Every structure is written in structure tokens, then in C-alpha cells.
Amino acid sequence: MITMNAARTVIEDGAIAIADGRICAVAGGVELADRFEPRRSLNARGCTVHPGFVDAHVHPTQHLIRFAFPETFHYDDTLGFYIDFILALTPEDEHIASKLACLEMVRHGTTAFLEGCGSVLEPDAAAAAVEEVGLRASLADPYVWDVGGPWSEPLKPRIATDRRRSLSILGGQLARNRDRSSRVRGHIALTGHATASTELLLAAAACAHENGVVLNMHQSYAATDTADDDRLRGEHPLVHFERMGALSERCTFAHMNVLRDDEVASVVDSGMSVVWCPSASMLWGCGGTITGPHLDLFRRGVDVALGSDASNFSSRLDVADQGFLALLTSRERTLSPDALLAGDVLAMCTIHGARALGMGHEIGSLEVGKLADLVIRRADLPEAAPGLDPIRDLVLGARSHSVDTVLVGGEVILEGGRSCRVDEEQVRARAAASARKLLARMGRPLPQPSEARRAPR
Ligand SMILES: [Zn+2]
Questions:
Q1: How much distance in Å is there from the Cα of 310 to the middle of ligand 1?
Q2: Do residues 53 and 363 lie in contact, with contact meaning Cβ atoms separated by under 8 Å?
Q3: What is the Å distance from ligand 1's center to 218 Cα?
Q4: How far is the CA of 193 from the centre of ligand 1 (A)?
Q5: pTM of the prediction?
Q6: Tens digits of per-residue pLDDT, 69-91?
Q7: CA-based nearest residue to 146, from 223, 202, 226
Q8: Domains in the chain and their CATH numbers?
Q9: How far is the CA of 91 from the centre of ligand 1 (A)?
Q10: 370 CA distance to ligand 1 centroid (A)?
Q11: Rounded-to-integer distance, Cα 316 and Cα 153, Å
Q12: Contact by Cβ (8 Å): 293, 264
């Protein structure tokens, strides 16, 4: 049992007792058998148990357009596609997309996620899907922004780019936090990518602070949006944010692939979380894993969490996959196996992710008092053998293949790798049909299958 507590205790023959959805004891199996008479017991039969993974940057409603972009699209080509997507998306689409996304996440061992920067148009549709699959999530108000740019005009029928609208909806999702037992909570988010004035950013930071929640934003993804930010702020954005008093341990900024030397101290000193999304950069050839600051920030003590982003932007919602990529690229870049260890990656997927959601005291480790969100692996797979190091097995070896049983709040929501809550076939079939109808409404053709090209001789 890998606890991920502060001492990183691993218990050889561990057991865990759960009451009212929370962990009430963590100890050796023999000891707990003497202390409790459980109503129900699950026998992990020598398999690894660990805290549920936390995916700290996810766009669940973009699941219907996975691999809908032409494969040769560059990042800058995606804008027009996204505008068509947002204009055509219905609440029913957002519901089925989120359900599919949640299903995918839980099958990969994720028990909680942070919706990325207010990208869901109808948060109630996503919230319903999260509750149906049984995960935890934190949602934010849709598209809070007030700086024009190329989005502004075409999206006007759906989302106004103005400060008045943004300020009027800011904090609307926090009503979900009144019920402390709710699996769906609310936080504050700005769309980011240089679409918020400093005034709006300060209002959002104040709202997050007053309500004790996270302020989430896309930040410094690529050279283009970082240059927009430089122009808008008149200096490097992280330096500006620190000078304006907007940065704190409540901030969780996603991507952060482009950070200049003078911005590093602002990030480190603020205590903020940074969400590293390796494949959301790598799939587009953006260079974030080659020149990005994440490894350096991690070494300086920053809470670096991991994010899968959107399936159309990074392939799949498997936060441990992001850790695998983070580890490999870090070692390759530094020419050293010491750059990131599997245990470091496990911390990013669990306790760092929990802090990035503002839930570090509730989830992310197997400790008394925390919510009973955990994963039981299986060991009867060739890729899980010979089973010498449980941490390298689950980060580098068997990876998500060995996810067998997932508990959220003590409730089994996945067993034998299958959802206990929803009909998986029905979800997939409905999503496939909805995706085709959505693309038709967008006026976009179905994508061509990827080509196997031959160089001319
Ligand atoms: Zn994103």
C-alpha cells in the first residue's frame, strides 16, 4: 500500500478502514483485523493500493472532437475550428462528452479532476455526468475573459467578451461548495491565454481568496500567447502578476511552457501550483518539454501537478501517461536518469494534483481523515510482472493496464476495470453518434484516417 503521506510510507501488508466515505485507519492488515469488524471488506490479494490520481487540467466537453482536427493542423490553425465547435455545441453534447471523459479517466485510475479554466459552456451538464460516473471534479464559470482578440467577434452570439458579463458570472459555481459532501465543487477560473485584463485578474484573485478556492488559468502555453501577454502587461506576465499582488498559493496555472528567467522567482516565491501538460505540447510540436521550466520548478519546490488537457489536444485522459512523458523527456533532456524518479511522478499525480485542486487536505494520500479515494491494481498481467517495485510498475510498467478497482468516497465505482455506475457500451455509442452530428453542424468533414507517407525516391 503506497500511502503518499508526508513520509511516503509504503506498507507491505497494509489495510485501510473506511467509515462515512473517509479513511479512519491505515495500518498493517493484521492490526486492523483486530480493531474492526467491517460490514464489507475488499481483499486486494497482494496487489498494489494507492491514492486515486488527480488530473489537474481537463476539458471534459471536448471529448467529442478527439482526432477531429486534420492531423497536419498546427496549433495556430485550431482557432477557427474551436469557434465552430463552441457555436455548435449543445448541453446534450457536453453531457455525453463529459460522461465519456469521466469514464476514460476512472479506467485510468483518476478519481478527481480540475476542469480546465472554465471551458464548459453548461457546467450543470458536466456536473451531472461527473456524478453519474461517480468521480470528483471542480468546475468553474464559463469563459471569463474581457480582452478581445480573434475570438471576440465570431463568438459574440454565444459568449460576450466583456468585463461586465465576466464579473456578473464570476463565482457562480461556488454555490456547489455549500454542500461539503458534494463530489462536484466549484472554483474560480479565467480562460487565460492573455484574454483577461489585469483588473479582471485581480477581481478573480480576490474572489478565489475570499472563498478559499483555487484560481485557475491557461498561462504561457506557446510563444504566441506569451507575446500577447507581454504586449498586454507591458512586461513579462508572471512578473507583472506578482507585482500586482495576483499570485498566491491559491493560483493553479496550466501549461506554463514559456517562462523567462525573470519570471521563475515570481512562480517559486508565490507558492502557486503549475500544471504540466506534456502531451498537450508534444502533440503539436510546441517544444514545452524541450525548453519548458517544469523540471526546474519542481526541483525548486513548486507543486508541479500534471494535466491531460483535452483528448483532441493531447490524445487521452490518462494523467499517469503525462507523468510517463514528463519522466522520459526530463531524463532525455538532462541526459540523466536522476532527473525525475517514478516516485516523483506519483507525487505529481496524487498529492501535488490534490493541492492544485485546492484539496490537499482532503485527497491525494491515504491518511486518516482524508476522503477514501483509492485505486486497487491487479497483478495478473505480464506487464505487471515480476512485481519487484510497485511504484515503477505503475508509473513505467503496467501503467493504466493494471487499474482494477476504484473507490471514491469509499464507494466502489470501478470493478474489474469496468464502471459499476454506467453502461459503458451505451455511453460510447451515444458519444459516437453525437460526435458525427456535431461535426455536421460545425460544417466540418469527418477526418481522413492518418496516412502512412512514403518519401519520394
Ligand atoms: Zn487547456
A1: 7
A2: no
A3: 6
A4: 10
A5: 0.97
A6: 988 888 888 889 999 999 999 99
A7: 202
A8: 14-50+372-419 (2.30.40.10), 53-356 (3.20.20.140)
A9: 20
A10: 28
A11: 31
A12: yes
